[in-house]
Protein backbone atom coordinates (compact mmCIF):
# COMPACT_ATOMS: atom_id res chain seq x y z
CA UNK A 1 0.00 0.00 0.00
CA UNK A 2 1.17 3.49 -0.82
CA UNK A 3 2.06 5.61 2.19
CA UNK A 4 2.20 9.33 2.74
CA UNK A 5 3.86 11.19 5.61
CA UNK A 6 4.39 14.87 6.44
CA UNK A 7 6.65 16.95 8.64
CA UNK A 8 3.68 17.78 10.91
CA UNK A 9 3.06 14.10 11.39
CA UNK A 10 6.72 13.42 12.13
CA UNK A 11 6.77 16.19 14.75
CA UNK A 12 3.80 14.58 16.50
CA UNK A 13 5.57 11.24 16.33
CA UNK A 14 8.73 12.70 17.86
CA UNK A 15 6.81 14.10 20.83
CA UNK A 16 5.04 10.79 21.30
CA UNK A 17 8.23 8.70 21.26
CA UNK A 18 9.89 10.97 23.83
CA UNK A 19 7.01 10.68 26.30
CA UNK A 20 6.36 6.99 25.66
CA UNK A 21 10.04 6.12 26.14
CA UNK A 22 10.25 8.20 29.31
CA UNK A 23 7.15 6.47 30.70
CA UNK A 24 8.70 3.10 29.87
CA UNK A 25 11.94 3.91 31.70
CA UNK A 26 10.14 5.20 34.80
CA UNK A 27 7.84 2.16 34.81
CA UNK A 28 10.83 -0.18 34.51
CA UNK A 29 12.46 1.51 37.50
CA UNK A 30 9.25 1.15 39.50
CA UNK A 31 8.86 -2.54 38.65
CA UNK A 32 12.53 -3.22 39.43
CA UNK A 33 12.12 -1.47 42.77
CA UNK A 34 8.96 -3.35 43.66
CA UNK A 35 10.10 -6.75 42.42
CA UNK A 36 13.77 -6.81 43.46
CA UNK A 37 14.33 -4.17 46.14
CA UNK A 38 11.04 -4.13 48.00
CA UNK A 39 10.17 -7.67 46.84
CA UNK A 40 6.49 -6.89 47.06
CA UNK A 41 4.69 -6.65 43.72
CA UNK A 42 1.06 -5.64 44.00
CA UNK A 43 -2.02 -5.46 41.78
CA UNK A 44 -1.29 -1.79 41.09
CA UNK A 45 2.10 -2.73 39.61
CA UNK A 46 0.57 -5.23 37.19
CA UNK A 47 -2.16 -2.79 36.16
CA UNK A 48 0.38 -0.06 35.37
CA UNK A 49 2.12 -2.55 33.06
CA UNK A 50 -1.19 -3.02 31.25
CA UNK A 51 -1.46 0.75 30.89
CA UNK A 52 2.07 0.98 29.48
CA UNK A 53 1.33 -1.81 26.99
CA UNK A 54 -1.70 0.08 25.68
CA UNK A 55 0.36 3.27 25.51
CA UNK A 56 2.78 1.51 23.18
CA UNK A 57 -0.13 0.18 21.10
CA UNK A 58 -1.39 3.75 20.84
CA UNK A 59 2.06 4.81 19.65
CA UNK A 60 2.06 2.04 17.03
CA UNK A 61 -1.32 3.18 15.73
CA UNK A 62 -0.04 6.76 15.67
CA UNK A 63 2.84 5.60 13.47
CA UNK A 64 0.24 4.11 11.13
CA UNK A 65 -1.67 7.41 11.09
CA UNK A 66 1.45 9.42 10.32
CA UNK A 67 2.49 7.18 7.44
CA UNK A 68 -1.01 7.32 6.01
CA UNK A 69 -1.41 11.05 5.80
CA UNK A 70 -1.92 12.48 9.28
CA UNK A 71 -0.84 16.10 9.02
CA UNK A 72 -1.70 16.35 5.32
CA UNK A 73 -4.84 18.05 4.02
CA UNK A 74 -7.69 15.70 3.22
CA UNK A 75 -7.95 16.89 -0.37
CA UNK A 76 -4.32 15.95 -1.06
CA UNK A 77 -4.65 12.35 0.11
CA UNK A 78 -5.65 9.48 -2.22
CA UNK A 79 -8.84 7.70 -1.17
CA UNK A 80 -7.09 4.44 -0.27
CA UNK A 81 -4.60 6.20 2.02
CA UNK A 82 -7.33 8.31 3.62
CA UNK A 83 -9.34 5.20 4.45
CA UNK A 84 -6.33 3.51 6.07
CA UNK A 85 -5.51 6.65 8.08
CA UNK A 86 -9.08 6.90 9.38
CA UNK A 87 -9.04 3.23 10.40
CA UNK A 88 -5.88 3.85 12.44
CA UNK A 89 -7.53 6.94 13.92
CA UNK A 90 -10.66 4.96 14.87
CA UNK A 91 -8.62 2.17 16.48
CA UNK A 92 -6.47 4.60 18.50
CA UNK A 93 -9.37 6.14 20.44
CA UNK A 94 -10.40 3.10 22.57
CA UNK A 95 -6.71 2.24 23.05
CA UNK A 96 -6.08 5.73 24.45
CA UNK A 97 -9.08 5.35 26.77
CA UNK A 98 -7.92 1.93 27.98
CA UNK A 99 -4.43 3.18 28.82
CA UNK A 100 -5.75 6.17 30.73
CA UNK A 101 -8.37 4.15 32.65
CA UNK A 102 -5.76 1.52 33.57
CA UNK A 103 -3.42 4.17 34.98
CA UNK A 104 -6.18 5.65 37.13
CA UNK A 105 -7.11 2.17 38.32
CA UNK A 106 -3.47 1.55 39.29
CA UNK A 107 -3.38 4.78 41.31
CA UNK A 108 -6.59 3.86 43.14
CA UNK A 109 -5.23 0.39 43.92
CA UNK A 110 -2.16 2.09 45.39
CA UNK A 111 -4.44 4.26 47.52
CA UNK A 112 -6.39 1.21 48.70
CA UNK A 113 -3.18 -0.39 49.87
CA UNK A 114 -1.79 2.74 51.51
CA UNK A 115 -4.79 4.24 53.31
CA UNK A 116 -5.93 1.66 55.81
CA UNK A 117 -8.87 3.24 57.64
CA UNK A 118 -12.27 1.67 56.82
CA UNK A 119 -13.70 5.00 55.65
CA UNK A 120 -10.82 5.63 53.26
CA UNK A 121 -10.93 2.10 51.90
CA UNK A 122 -14.68 2.36 51.36
CA UNK A 123 -14.22 5.64 49.49
CA UNK A 124 -11.49 4.01 47.41
CA UNK A 125 -13.68 1.04 46.49
CA UNK A 126 -16.45 3.45 45.54
CA UNK A 127 -14.11 5.35 43.23
CA UNK A 128 -12.85 2.09 41.71
CA UNK A 129 -16.46 1.07 41.01
CA UNK A 130 -17.26 4.41 39.38
CA UNK A 131 -14.07 4.22 37.33
CA UNK A 132 -14.91 0.69 36.16
CA UNK A 133 -18.41 1.70 35.03
CA UNK A 134 -17.50 4.89 33.22
CA UNK A 135 -14.29 3.34 31.87
CA UNK A 136 -16.31 0.55 30.27
CA UNK A 137 -18.60 3.14 28.70
CA UNK A 138 -15.78 5.29 27.32
CA UNK A 139 -14.03 2.30 25.76
CA UNK A 140 -17.18 0.82 24.21
CA UNK A 141 -18.47 4.19 22.97
CA UNK A 142 -15.07 4.95 21.44
CA UNK A 143 -15.01 1.61 19.66
CA UNK A 144 -18.67 1.62 18.54
CA UNK A 145 -18.75 5.30 17.62
CA UNK A 146 -20.57 4.49 14.41
CA UNK A 147 -23.00 1.74 13.40
CA UNK A 148 -21.85 0.02 11.31
CA UNK A 149 -18.24 0.60 12.32
CA UNK A 150 -17.16 1.19 8.71
CA UNK A 151 -19.12 4.44 8.61
CA UNK A 152 -16.41 6.04 10.77
CA UNK A 153 -13.86 5.81 7.94
CA UNK A 154 -16.29 5.74 5.02
CA UNK A 155 -19.05 8.39 5.23
CA UNK A 156 -20.83 6.89 2.21
CA UNK A 157 -21.77 3.74 4.16
CA UNK A 158 -25.44 3.83 5.33
CA UNK A 159 -25.84 4.07 9.10
CA UNK A 160 -25.36 6.58 11.91
CA UNK A 161 -22.63 7.93 14.19
CA UNK A 162 -22.73 9.51 17.62
CA UNK A 163 -22.19 13.24 17.78
CA UNK A 164 -18.39 13.31 18.06
CA UNK A 165 -18.24 16.62 19.89
CA UNK A 166 -20.82 15.59 22.51
CA UNK A 167 -19.24 12.16 23.01
CA UNK A 168 -15.61 13.25 23.17
CA UNK A 169 -16.23 16.25 25.39
CA UNK A 170 -18.48 14.36 27.80
CA UNK A 171 -15.83 11.65 28.15
CA UNK A 172 -13.12 14.29 28.63
CA UNK A 173 -15.23 16.02 31.28
CA UNK A 174 -15.53 12.75 33.20
CA UNK A 175 -11.78 12.20 32.88
CA UNK A 176 -11.06 15.65 34.30
CA UNK A 177 -13.57 15.12 37.13
CA UNK A 178 -11.94 11.83 38.12
CA UNK A 179 -8.50 13.45 37.88
CA UNK A 180 -9.64 16.04 40.42
CA UNK A 181 -11.19 13.37 42.67
CA UNK A 182 -8.02 11.26 42.63
CA UNK A 183 -5.94 14.37 43.30
CA UNK A 184 -7.85 15.51 46.40
CA UNK A 185 -8.70 12.05 47.77
CA UNK A 186 -5.61 11.64 50.01
CA UNK A 187 -5.32 15.28 51.09
CA UNK A 188 -7.62 15.19 54.18
CA UNK A 189 -5.62 12.32 55.69
CA UNK A 190 -2.29 13.96 54.91
CA UNK A 191 -3.51 17.25 56.34
CA UNK A 192 -4.56 15.54 59.59
CA UNK A 193 -1.09 14.10 60.22
CA UNK A 194 0.69 15.72 63.18
CA UNK A 195 3.88 16.52 61.31
CA UNK A 196 5.93 19.69 60.87
CA UNK A 197 4.61 21.74 57.97
CA UNK A 198 7.65 21.10 55.78
CA UNK A 199 7.28 17.33 56.07
CA UNK A 200 3.52 17.47 55.59
CA UNK A 201 3.84 19.62 52.48
CA UNK A 202 6.48 17.24 51.11
CA UNK A 203 4.05 14.34 51.42
CA UNK A 204 1.22 16.31 49.88
CA UNK A 205 3.47 17.38 46.99
CA UNK A 206 4.26 13.76 46.11
CA UNK A 207 0.58 12.83 46.09
CA UNK A 208 -0.17 15.98 44.07
CA UNK A 209 1.92 14.77 41.12
CA UNK A 210 -1.39 13.83 39.54
CA UNK A 211 -1.96 17.54 39.02
CA UNK A 212 0.26 17.32 35.94
CA UNK A 213 -2.18 14.82 34.42
CA UNK A 214 -5.04 17.20 35.13
CA UNK A 215 -3.17 20.01 33.37
CA UNK A 216 -2.52 17.90 30.25
CA UNK A 217 -6.18 16.80 30.20
CA UNK A 218 -7.28 20.44 30.19
CA UNK A 219 -4.73 21.45 27.55
CA UNK A 220 -5.94 18.61 25.33
CA UNK A 221 -9.45 20.12 25.19
CA UNK A 222 -8.43 22.78 22.67
CA UNK A 223 -7.12 20.20 20.20
CA UNK A 224 -10.22 18.08 20.82
CA UNK A 225 -12.45 21.02 19.88
CA UNK A 226 -10.47 21.49 16.68
CA UNK A 227 -10.80 17.89 15.51
CA UNK A 228 -14.47 17.57 16.53
CA UNK A 229 -15.39 20.60 14.38
CA UNK A 230 -13.05 19.70 11.54
CA UNK A 231 -13.91 19.05 7.92
CA UNK A 232 -10.24 18.15 7.38
CA UNK A 233 -9.63 15.37 9.96
CA UNK A 234 -6.31 14.17 8.58
CA UNK A 235 -4.80 17.64 8.97
CA UNK A 236 -6.47 18.69 12.22
CA UNK A 237 -5.94 15.41 14.10
CA UNK A 238 -2.24 16.12 14.75
CA UNK A 239 -2.84 18.17 17.89
CA UNK A 240 -5.36 15.76 19.41
CA UNK A 241 -3.15 12.74 18.72
CA UNK A 242 -0.10 14.46 20.20
CA UNK A 243 -1.87 15.60 23.37
CA UNK A 244 -3.48 12.17 23.80
CA UNK A 245 -0.04 10.54 23.73
CA UNK A 246 1.30 13.12 26.19
CA UNK A 247 -1.65 12.65 28.55
CA UNK A 248 -1.38 8.85 28.61
CA UNK A 249 2.32 8.86 29.33
CA UNK A 250 2.36 11.74 31.82
CA UNK A 251 -0.28 9.80 33.78
CA UNK A 252 1.95 6.70 33.81
CA UNK A 253 5.00 8.73 34.85
CA UNK A 254 3.14 10.42 37.71
CA UNK A 255 1.75 7.09 38.90
CA UNK A 256 5.22 5.51 38.93
CA UNK A 257 7.47 8.27 40.31
CA UNK A 258 6.63 7.79 44.02
CA UNK A 259 7.63 4.13 43.73
CA UNK A 260 11.17 4.85 42.53
CA UNK A 261 12.71 6.31 45.69
CA UNK A 262 14.27 3.05 46.88
CA UNK A 263 16.02 2.69 43.53
CA UNK A 264 17.22 6.29 43.62
CA UNK A 265 18.47 5.79 47.18
CA UNK A 266 20.54 2.84 45.95
CA UNK A 267 21.76 4.61 42.81
CA UNK A 268 22.40 8.07 44.32
CA UNK A 269 22.79 7.52 48.06
CA UNK A 270 24.26 10.98 48.71
CA UNK A 271 21.17 12.65 47.26
CA UNK A 272 18.36 10.25 48.11
CA UNK A 273 19.86 8.44 51.09
CA UNK A 274 17.59 7.48 53.94
CA UNK A 275 20.30 8.71 56.28
CA UNK A 276 21.17 12.34 56.79
CA UNK A 277 22.59 14.60 59.42
CA UNK A 278 19.97 17.28 59.14
CA UNK A 279 17.35 18.58 61.52
CA UNK A 280 16.02 16.23 64.13
CA UNK A 281 12.74 16.73 65.97
CA UNK A 282 13.11 18.16 69.43
CA UNK A 283 11.52 15.31 71.30
CA UNK A 284 13.16 11.92 71.08
CA UNK A 285 12.20 9.82 74.01
CA UNK A 286 11.54 6.13 74.60
CA UNK A 287 8.09 5.19 75.78
CA UNK A 288 6.80 1.87 77.03
CA UNK A 289 4.20 0.07 74.95
CA UNK A 290 2.60 -2.82 76.73
CA UNK A 291 1.94 -6.20 75.20
CA UNK A 292 -1.24 -6.04 73.14
CA UNK A 293 -1.23 -2.26 72.91
CA UNK A 294 -0.73 -2.80 69.21
CA UNK A 295 -2.31 -5.63 67.29
CA UNK A 296 -0.03 -8.62 67.60
CA UNK A 297 2.29 -9.76 70.36
CA UNK A 298 6.00 -9.38 70.79
CA UNK A 299 8.60 -6.71 71.05
CA UNK A 300 7.77 -3.93 68.63
CA UNK A 301 10.13 -1.09 68.02
CA UNK A 302 8.81 1.75 65.95
CA UNK A 303 11.33 4.14 64.48
CA UNK A 304 9.66 6.97 62.64
CA UNK A 305 11.56 9.77 61.05
CA UNK A 306 10.55 12.79 59.07
CA UNK A 307 11.81 14.47 55.95
CA UNK A 308 15.02 16.29 56.70
CA UNK A 309 15.52 14.50 59.98
CA UNK A 310 17.99 11.83 60.98
CA UNK A 311 16.56 8.62 59.73
CA UNK A 312 17.07 5.07 60.87
CA UNK A 313 16.32 1.68 59.53
CA UNK A 314 16.58 -0.62 56.60
CA UNK A 315 18.95 -0.64 53.67
CA UNK A 316 16.42 0.92 51.34
CA UNK A 317 13.88 3.66 51.66
CA UNK A 318 10.83 1.90 50.32
CA UNK A 319 8.77 4.86 49.32
CA UNK A 320 5.21 4.46 50.52
CA UNK A 321 3.49 3.10 53.50
CA UNK A 322 0.17 2.57 55.14
CA UNK A 323 -0.93 6.00 56.28
CA UNK A 324 -3.37 6.31 59.13
CA UNK A 325 -4.75 9.39 60.83
CA UNK A 326 -3.82 10.02 64.43
CA UNK A 327 -4.92 7.32 66.78
CA UNK A 328 -5.43 4.56 64.25
CA UNK A 329 -3.45 1.37 64.73
CA UNK A 330 -3.39 -1.63 62.47
CA UNK A 331 -1.94 -5.08 62.52
CA UNK A 332 1.74 -4.96 61.70
CA UNK A 333 3.72 -6.41 64.57
CA UNK A 334 4.51 -9.68 62.83
CA UNK A 335 5.94 -8.02 59.74
CA UNK A 336 9.60 -7.24 59.01
CA UNK A 337 11.19 -3.85 58.56
CA UNK A 338 9.02 -1.87 56.19
CA UNK A 339 9.21 1.14 54.06
CA UNK A 340 8.96 4.85 53.84
CA UNK A 341 7.36 7.36 51.59
CA UNK A 342 8.80 10.78 50.82
CA UNK A 343 11.32 10.33 53.59
CA UNK A 344 8.83 9.30 56.29
CA UNK A 345 9.69 5.90 57.56
CA UNK A 346 8.33 3.43 60.09
CA UNK A 347 10.25 0.28 60.86
CA UNK A 348 9.03 -2.66 62.87
CA UNK A 349 11.25 -5.29 64.49
CA UNK A 350 9.71 -8.24 66.27
CA UNK A 351 11.07 -10.56 68.95
CA UNK A 352 9.15 -12.75 71.39
CA UNK A 353 11.17 -12.60 74.58
CA UNK A 354 11.31 -8.96 75.60
CA UNK A 355 8.86 -6.23 76.42
CA UNK A 356 7.95 -3.53 73.94
CA UNK A 357 9.63 -0.20 73.54
CA UNK A 358 8.99 2.65 71.16
CA UNK A 359 11.37 5.32 70.00
CA UNK A 360 9.54 8.05 68.23
CA UNK A 361 11.42 10.63 66.20
CA UNK A 362 8.44 12.88 65.50
CA UNK A 363 7.15 15.96 67.31
CA UNK A 364 5.88 14.10 70.38
CA UNK A 365 4.83 17.30 72.10
CA UNK A 366 2.08 17.62 69.50
CA UNK A 367 0.53 14.48 70.91
CA UNK A 368 1.43 12.29 67.98
CA UNK A 369 3.11 9.08 69.06
CA UNK A 370 2.46 7.31 65.83
CA UNK A 371 1.17 8.80 62.61
CA UNK A 372 2.34 6.34 60.00
CA UNK A 373 1.98 2.57 60.16
CA UNK A 374 3.50 0.55 57.41
CA UNK A 375 2.13 -2.63 55.93
CA UNK A 376 3.36 -2.53 52.38
CA UNK A 377 5.90 -0.69 50.30
CA UNK A 378 5.33 1.14 47.07
From TrEMBL:
Instruction: Recite the UniProt keywords alphabetically.
Output: Membrane, Transmembrane, Transmembrane helix
Q: TM segments?
A: 12-33, 45-67, 87-110, 122-144, 166-189, 201-221, 241-264
One of the record's GO cellular component terms: membrane
One Pfam family matching this protein: Fung_rhodopsin
InterPro entries of this UniProt entry?
Rhodopsin_dom_fungi, SAT4-like
Compartment(s) of residence: Membrane
Q: Does the keyword Membrane apply?
A: yes
Q: What topology does the record note for this protein and the membrane?
A: Multi-pass membrane protein
Q: Which residues form the Rhodopsin domain?
A: 29-265
Q: Which domain of life is it from?
A: Eukaryota
The record's PANTHER family line, in alphabetical order, gives: MEMBRANE PROTEIN, PUTATIVE (AFU_ORTHOLOGUE AFUA_6G07820)-RELATED, PTH11-LIKE INTEGRAL MEMBRANE PROTEIN (AFU_ORTHOLOGUE AFUA_5G11245)
Provide the family line.
Belongs to the SAT4 family.
Please identify the protein, giving its name as recorded: Rhodopsin domain-containing protein
